[in-house]
User: Which sequence fits this backbone?
């Protein structure tokens, strides 16, 4: 928005900054690209087309974990397949799920900071739970690279250039544990990815997902409300405009 | 070199419900009490921004930091025990208030049958109802003997409820506050169970139906039904917890001090008495010895057992010989239940931790077990705790778990799904026990506790029986799709089930089969008390906190008595 006001189009901005267009998936770096007329064939911008992120300077989103924008785009496309846009409302990309996951990977979640990570490590039985030496950040890095690798193997294309059905085939291969990963099963990575997608769709927007609380709106969950004591005895379903916990911070 | 502090009358290891109750009672009686708490202090003001599912319910903001300490787990002795690296099956507390901060507030008294389970079962069904592998035993105390302490706990927390359950023990006084609201969702369960001939009652709730001042002068607020209770603290001070009740009561006396960031690593013993505890200041790394006339272990079930083991107090249970009592009778619970999908949306996001209705028609020995292959049973409940969107994505069984159809169905069914569940009792088995792990250590170099646990035949049979009952109720409630839970096989430490771990430091009337007597005084060290659900020789069909609270009041009475006269209390 700021650039447009200055008479500089987004495409000009992209050109002048010299950043490959794919670098701006989600639009967080330069603000959202809502309404930006992306050509159909411009696959690299597919993610940004659905930007949907707030554009005021106080809520800029950015990458804290992924260094290579392409990896981030693979993640974004994958989570969109898990939680796609439909007539109910936005999918994972518009909800900012990619940013949510990226930002979480840069913190305690990504480094398993509050979990027991001392060796020795043994595979163990399923009933004994997670036994890998890998952190979530390491699993995501490996898993995202593997998804792209799998796309190249099967379709001679990058994951982001695949048709939806082809992406689903690859995600399903991970889910069925058919892809070889080091130190962790592809099925585990799939479950982690699926869970993180739901977290990003429905966590409070302070974590940079659930953009505009649209995840909550679709689901009919009002987020942070002080009290339901006056309405809990109502038979009728109560539609309540959601509120973020950020409303308690000032 | 550890620095030795001034001696106090009582040192507590952990300041949650049990530590708080004992601190309040002992401090009121004039004893000097120090509480060592390895987490931080906290109070109602810290929960203003608690309506955050991701931070509190998913990332476990208020729970134990497992990077410092966890347990190891195996299903059987044949398996290699491995660390519980992430929280899952149960959620361990940490910090002032302990799990009492983030509990739901469901407050049932164990049944009279529970306390005399061995003698009552033998009498009615003969000695061979369960095989000899099950180490069933009486608790060394009866419901009637414990009743005054239950009443005391009820009054401290201002318990909300109604005395209309024909199956529970006699209450000497009515509930301090009336029951919570009967919501439309609860009424579905009430109507269905009534028409099936059962006896529904409002779940006794420590989220209070109205403001209340307890006998110690502490104020508890009225629940606002905000739907953020379990895994959260209460920003209204409306969920009774140690930090709004017993901890301030203890503080007011001037006789109680809490030292936070103090991680106890050893109970020190000399002859047949303990002399104090050794702890590490987790911020400075410095080591201290806190000498005391009496040492009270008031941490969670698992840590109480571990501290006795690392301090070599009592004899470790050996499943080969059956000798030893420490670590014996570790118990858990089973969670049979049924999910129902309804046509119309309901206000499922509103609720309170202990808002619910329950039947006990299939709990304890409420029904005849002559023709079934298990003993005891389960409370069966529908609770409206407030369901939140990350954790609640219900889809019927034929729907995929991701993609377009998943999104559509999970959003559609989020407000259209209810579940009816049982909390199934857990009978002690000779192969289910706690011990010390030989390989893995905590951040302070102390061995981790090792858990050897699996579900048994009794669990599987009871699970199936209760699952069937919950499905019948759900059908009667009018669900269009009724999905009973799957049968259980091996215990899995990954999915959340219940933070109702029990046993390991069990109570009883015989030093040969228990760790503590019925004042929770250690048989091998008369000035050492071990308090908590670890005292349960088996686990009942309810949440444990009321019974833990009653036992803590009983222990406090014993500790005060001991401080005057010494010697064994029994």
Assistant:
């Amino acid at each position: 928005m700021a650039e447009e006001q200055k008479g500089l189009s987004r495409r000009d901005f992209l050109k002048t900054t010299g950043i490959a267009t794919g670098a701006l998936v989600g639009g967080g770096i330069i603000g959202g690209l809502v309404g930006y007329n992306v050509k159909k064939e411009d696959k690299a911008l597919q993610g940004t087309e659905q930007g949907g992120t707030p554009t005021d300077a106080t809520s800029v989103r950015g990458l804290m974990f992924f260094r290579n924008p392409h990896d981030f785009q693979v993640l974004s496309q994958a989570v969109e397949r898990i939680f796609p846009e439909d007539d109910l409302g936005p999918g994972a990309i518009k909800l900012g799920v990619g940013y949510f996951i990226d930002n979480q990977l840069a913190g305690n979640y990504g480094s398993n900071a509050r979990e027991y990570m001392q060796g020795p490590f043994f595979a163990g039985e399923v009933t004994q739970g997670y036994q890998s030496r890998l952190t979530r950040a390491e699993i995501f890095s490996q898993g995202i690279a593997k998804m792209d690798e799998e796309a190249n193997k099967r379709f001679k294309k990058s994951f982001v250039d695949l048709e939806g059905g082809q992406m689903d085939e690859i995600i399903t291969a991970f889910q069925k544990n058919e892809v070889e990963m080091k130190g962790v099963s592809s099925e585990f990575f799939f479950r982690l990815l699926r869970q993180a997608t739901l977290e990003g769709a429905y966590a409070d927007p302070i974590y940079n997902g659930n953009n505009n609380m649209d995840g909550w709106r679709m689901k009919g969950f009002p987020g942070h409300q002080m009290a339901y004591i006056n309405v809990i005895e109502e038979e009728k379903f109560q539609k309540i405009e959601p509120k973020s916990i950020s409303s308690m911070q000032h | 070199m550890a620095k030795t502090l001034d001696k106090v009358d009582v040192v507590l290891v952990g300041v949650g419900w049990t530590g708080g109750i004992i601190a309040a009672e002992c401090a009121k009686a004039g004893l000097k009490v120090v509480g060592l708490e390895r987490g931080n202090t906290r109070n109602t003001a810290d929960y203003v921004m608690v309506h955050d599912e991701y931070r509190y319910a998913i990332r476990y903001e208020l729970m134990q930091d497992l990077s410092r300490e966890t347990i190891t787990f195996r299903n059987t002795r044949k398996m290699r025990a491995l660390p519980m690296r992430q929280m899952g099956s149960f959620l361990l507390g940490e910090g002032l208030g302990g799990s009492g901060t983030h509990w739901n507030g469901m407050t049932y008294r164990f049944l009279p049958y529970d306390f005399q389970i061995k003698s009552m079962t033998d009498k009615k069904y003969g000695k061979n109802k369960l095989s000899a592998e099950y180490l069933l035993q009486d608790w060394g105390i009866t419901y009637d003997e414990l009743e005054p302490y239950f009443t005391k706990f009820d009054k401290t927390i201002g318990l909300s409820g109604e005395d209309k359950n024909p199956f529970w023990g006699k209450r000497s006084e009515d509930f301090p506050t009336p029951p919570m609201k009967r919501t439309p969702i609860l009424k579905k369960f009430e109507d269905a169970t009534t028409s099936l001939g059962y006896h529904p009652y409002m779940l006794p709730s420590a989220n209070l139906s109205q403001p209340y001042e307890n006998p110690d002068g502490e104020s508890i607020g009225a629940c606002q039904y905000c739907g953020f209770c379990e895994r959260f603290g209460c920003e209204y001070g409306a969920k009774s917890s140690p930090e709004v009740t017993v901890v301030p009561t203890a503080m007011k006396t001037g006789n109680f001090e809490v030292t936070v960031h103090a991680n106890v690593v050893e109970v020190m013993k000399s002859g047949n008495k303990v002399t104090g505890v050794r702890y590490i200041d987790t911020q400075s790394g410095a080591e201290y010895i806190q000498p005391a006339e009496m040492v009270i272990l008031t941490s969670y079930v698992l840590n109480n057992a571990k501290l006795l083991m690392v301090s070599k107090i009592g004899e470790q249970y050996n499943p080969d010989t059956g000798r030893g009592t420490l670590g014996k009778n570790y118990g858990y619970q089973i969670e049979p239940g049924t999910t129902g999908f309804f046509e119309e949306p309901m206000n499922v996001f509103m609720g309170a931790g202990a808002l619910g209705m329950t039947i006990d028609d299939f709990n304890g020995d409420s029904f005849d077990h002559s023709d079934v292959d298990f003993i005891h049973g389960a409370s069966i409940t529908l609770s409206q705790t407030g369901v939140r969107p990350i954790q609640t994505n219900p889809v019927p069984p034929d729907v995929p778990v991701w993609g377009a159809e998943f999104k559509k169905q999970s959003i559609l069914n989020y407000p259209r799904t209810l579940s009816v569940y049982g909390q199934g009792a857990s009978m002690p088995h000779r192969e289910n026990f706690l011990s010390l792990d030989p390989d893995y250590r905590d951040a302070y170099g102390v061995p981790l506790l090792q858990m050897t646990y699996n579900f048994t035949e009794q669990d599987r049979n009871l699970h199936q029986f209760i699952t069937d009952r919950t499905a019948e109720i759900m059908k009667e409630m009018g669900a269009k799709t009724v999905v009973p839970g799957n049968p259980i096989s091996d215990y899995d430490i990954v999915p959340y089930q219940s933070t109702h771990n029990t046993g390991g430091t069990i109570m009883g009337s015989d030093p040969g089969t228990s760790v503590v007597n019925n004042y929770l005084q250690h048989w091998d060290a008369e000035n050492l008390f071990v308090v908590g659900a670890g005292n349960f020789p088996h686990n009942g069909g309810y949440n444990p906190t009321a019974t833990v609270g009653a036992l803590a009041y009983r222990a406090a009475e014993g500790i005060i008595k001991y401080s005057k006269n010494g010697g064994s209390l029994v």
